[in-house]
Amino acid sequence: MSRKKAARGKGGGAAPSAALPPAQGTGRAAAAAPRGSSATAPELPRNGGAAAGRPSLSSSGEFYDLAFKVMLVGDSGVGKTCLLVRFKDGAFLAGSFISTVGIDFRNKVLTVDGVKVKLQIWDTAGQERFRSVTHAYYRDAHALLLLYDVTNKASFDNIQAWLTEIHEYAQQDVVLMLLGNKVDSAQDRVVKREDGEKLAKEYGVPFMETSAKSGLNVELAFTAIAKELKHRSMKLPNEPKFKLHDYVKKEVRGSGCCRS
Ligand SMILES: Nc1nc2c(ncn2[C@@H]2O[C@H](COP(=O)(O)OP(=O)(O)OP(=O)(O)O)[C@@H](O)[C@H]2O)c(=O)[nH]1
Ligand SMILES: [Mg+2]
């Protein structure tokens, strides 16, 4: 991978989403990106750039060996922005709900089995009116985290429609994971864990329940994705096969226990 600085997202376009605090490497892609345009972040090769074998420099000045694009999708209000802020900054965006406008991205470099993997994480707006913007970004996503809110039945019922949309717009080989968020709100839960597990099994996707508020399983969700993508792109000869489903089953924490 040639030594390059990941381009910053350009400003401009509609008002940037108010939900993400200004931060290093925040890409503020124009909310109404022209149909079919690629993101304002650099295009990332399908294999994450494994071929070059030399580290690159991310916009936050961190070296990385591989880079992948991950998208957060799901109904408005399920917790996509909060999950990203929890993962990136280790904080919970409490207070009033500020809906994402258009799309935003944050970068985070994590180390997976000694390899530095940069995740360029796209936080999409769940509101229907931004759906056409989101469609333009599916094309080069390497992985998708599909969220519903365990306290909101409609967000779970809409998962089928999200899966149809993903099937239509995303690549065949996209890595997909289903997340039931807000599991800390036990008293308000209306979607049982078994319902999520059953749906995930039906579609053959890994599943876990998370909480952006407590942090439960948030690190695990992104680490599992990074491991899967790294193993796909760097098939080292004597490396044991990585099985995403098995890894998630082994590592996932129940909502009854401590933080992730
Ligand atoms: N209890 C609890 N509340 C959460 C959690 N995650 C998000 N919330 C709250 O749910 C509301 C919506 O969260 P967001 O992250 O903004 O939702 P979103 O999916 O980004 O919504 P859009 O940007 O409109 O698509 C906010 O008031 C958050 O505080 C969680 O894990 N637990
Ligand atoms: Mg949001």
From TrEMBL:
Pfam families: Ras (PF00071). Its EC number is 3.6.5.2. It comes from the Eukaryota. Its main location: membrane. It is found in: Membrane. Its cofactor is Mg(2+). GO terms for biological process: protein transport. Residues 15-42 have a biased composition (Low complexity). GO terms for molecular function: G protein activity; GTP binding; metal ion binding. Keywords: GTP-binding, Hydrolase, Lipoprotein, Magnesium, Metal-binding, Nucleotide-binding, Prenylation, Protein transport, Transport. GO terms for cellular component: membrane. It catalyses: GTP + H2O = GDP + phosphate + H(+). Residues 1-56 are annotated as: Disordered. It is a lipid-anchor. PANTHER family: LD44762P. Belongs to the small GTPase superfamily. Rab family. This is small monomeric GTPase. It comes from Lepidothrix coronata.
